[in-house]
Amino acid sequence: MSSNKKYWKSVEELDGNSSIVEALRNNEFVEEIPTDEFLGNEAALSSSSTTRRDFLKYVGFSTAAASLAACEGPVHLSIPYVLQPEQIIPGVADYYATSVFDGFDFANLLVKTREGRPIKIENNTIAGAKFAANARVHASILSLYDSMRLKEPKLDGKNAAWSTVDSKIKSSIVDAKAKGGQVVLLTNTLASPSTERLIADFVAKNPNAKHVIYDAVSSSEALDAFETVYGERALVDYDFSKASLIVSVGADFLGDWQGGGYDTGYAQGRIPKNGKMSRHFQLEANMTLSGAAADKRVAMSTANQKQALVLIYNIITGSSVATNLDAAYKAEVTKAAQQLKAAGSKGLLVSGIQDKNAQLLVLAINQVLTSEAFTTSGTRQIRKGSNEKVAQLVKDMNAGSVHTLIMSGVNPVYTLADSKSFVEGLKKVKTSVSLSLKEDETASLATIAAPVPHYLEAWGDLALTKGTYSITQPTIRPLFNTKQFQDILLSLNGIPGTYYDYLKAFSSSIIAGTTWNKVLHDGVFVGAIPAASAGTADYSGAANALAQAKPVTTELVLYTKTGMGDGQQANNPWLQEFPDPLTRVSWDNYVTVSNADAKKWNLTNEIVANGGLNGSYANLTVNGVKLENVPVIVQPGQAVGTVGMALGYGRKAALKEEMQVGINAYAIYAGFNSVQSVTIEKAKGEHEFACVQGQKTLMGRGDIIKETSLEIFNTKDAEIWNEKPEVSLDHKEVKTTTVDLWGSFDRSTGHHFNLSIDLNACTGCGACVIACHAENNVPVVGKSEVRRSRDMHWLRIDRYYSSESTFEGDNERSENIAGLSSSLSTFNEMEKAGDNPQVSFQPVMCQHCNHAPCETVCPVAATSHGRQGQNQMAYNRCVGTRYCANNCPYKVRRFNWFLYNKNSEFDYHMNDDLGRMVLNPDVNVRSRGVMEKCSMCIQMTQATILKAKNEGRTVKDGEFQTACSNACSSGAMVFGDVNDKEAAVTKLAEDERSYHLLEHVGTRPNVVYHVKVRNT
Fold first, then answer.
1. pTM listed for this prediction
2. Which of 59, 340, 500, 746 has the greatest number of beta carbons closer than 10 A?
């Protein structure tokens, strides 16, 4: 019963363009190479004899100009230190522990610096550092070097000195007090004890002042519910590792729900150990990362989710509140609720429904279960915003009662749905101050635009969860003429000294028992973790109120994309080019619709001849607000009667032209509610997407994704569910691994590296993709080039859909095939999209084959095999024939079509001096005309070996890392030396779940995958 499960990667494969899709699947290069432009020039070719090397240069490059640059690279002259700082050793990286919280994303970090330049974000793994960096936090290193940052303070649109700005703010506050006007501090959630103390002192000193907290993406209802029951405005920090049964009602906890960061605990329970793993039910409208990982996913509208939550509440608590859940869902929801009740303290229910009554039921259900994963100690402090107070502020501004408005970390002109009212109110505020990294939509309208430092240039403290304390420290001197919000508060409060002095003194009362230097070194401090006082609420009344929820004709569900988040880093090209894990689209947001609704509204997607994806436009109307020409993606798994759309796009201010993409969905985020009633109509025209889903596909091979059910995993031998391919030898079937065309080298001496990837733990979060960008100087090519199948990602995360709703159903159907005719018809039907397919994510990079087919075809030996298992690239030898790419069964090699460095045609970070500061000096910046691909971060492994050698010791297990394994917070990627028999990677390589991609080809890869097990 091995997996013969049929997978498909895009809806377009199933429609009328099958011939185009098949051609693209078989073609390595989708566009014809214009060789006639230079090979057709007889004069040029006949003027001199052409050597073999010259000929290879001609046929290997797309233009004659590229051949001239084949062996050229940029040369820079270095100026040595006159007096070298003793703490900086050229060529050796320094690491600083810090933490980040920008009002949306947060993490405990190590920052890698070279010669004083921060160049890479890594996770702080010291005890107490529990939050790992997501893709956006990894990319934030590039935002430090954003050339569009605000560099000088501006007063009325003109550059001004800080002394002038400070004087203006102080005089305005004095004037407000004299005239009885309000002074309002409008900030994002700060989670900074020292900053909150400074604000409290400011409000105490100025009775006419108040502090309003505004989260662009609201969690206000969950905060309101928790505050009602426990008396504290905070969020529960769930521990998913302690749950054996998880039911999620509209909560994408592997995405950005409640700030995210739950994937580490979740993955611990998803890897089968001793025959057990957690079970996960997901009820949702949009297809999400959590839905993709679920064992059972039910696609339903938010209106039905509310009814389902009431039904679960009834079953768990024994209540009898009348519900109106559609009959189609009742059996599945009842089954989930009964299993949740049986799980007891090992059960957990979470919900993302933005309704206080729904959130009250979540608290009630987990209280009755006495869920171990639900704890009121160590609550999250990363969301504090109040929708009600923000709405009141806008009213006060329009009433003329706000005299001075000081804004920090917010951009309401962009993020508020009713931004017009805010703009009108801003005109009535006498003095408005926007403390911002950029001259964004709000800063450009404020009286004063004050530049603040990036978090990597600043001091600070954070209490991300109650009982923990972490320090933010600068890793570089401020690049521009900036000032911290806290320094301004100190000045307003009349406190002498710097914020650093204040912070150090303030922290002493929190870090009792340790020292400032110790906390600064570790980055985190864990003190006593108090629990919130238990309380109660009218749960029955909440259930009755929730049960009265009425469905709407068509439901719009707003969400934040894995790459773009709330839009703060819209000018970050790494994030813009990052393909969404589910749709695989970059450089865009769009409206996602189900296949049934797409047919009803005559909305289509199609793959065209050059491999690009095209789609219809639609007009959306929400509460009288109309968004025109929104691109459409047909999304399998989208609940019928619902559509989805991502926030964070459509920004224009302080962005390079290339980054001004997408539609601003905040305009329809009315009342901070992510669910809206919407009307949709098809618009004229066709949108061109940059979608990598139809490119470099591994479709049609049976051993790409291997899956099984937990029942089969526990009851059958591995030979059944992890079948090894066989080949014919002397007319006998033998295992592929027992025969070979090549003689093998002795690799038992020294190091031999393997990378293990567990498909059960991979959530598709993409942190590894961005970390690879940062570590290896991977260029950004832009939307047009991505559309041409020329993306340069060294690591991609393939997303596969299955044809059946369950694995067993897929197997049963394929095993019942009888005869050629039945085979053709059945497999054709199995490729048709189900309404709710299962999803699998698979990171794919160079497999570093021990018998690599690329190495045997390179005419200039540019690609060769190293003694430590890596497939190496010598860029200076490469002449760009691309034979290696044609011979690679995994399609992981990238041809560098253009010189992306210092090229105005690619106006991203490599096109300006500031942006190039992020480049890793240990990795060559490749010139055009060469192949490039994953190097298994050879520069990192060699640095580890050298460090151990200098210290006179052997390398410890876990020291060897690649950028991707280092970034993986779920533990899906483990890297190490398989010659170390006690290493974790060695045991994983020998595990019964391990297999290699396309094992029947005989390439003997050094990347090992693990069979995905579903608890169905």
1. 0.91
2. 340
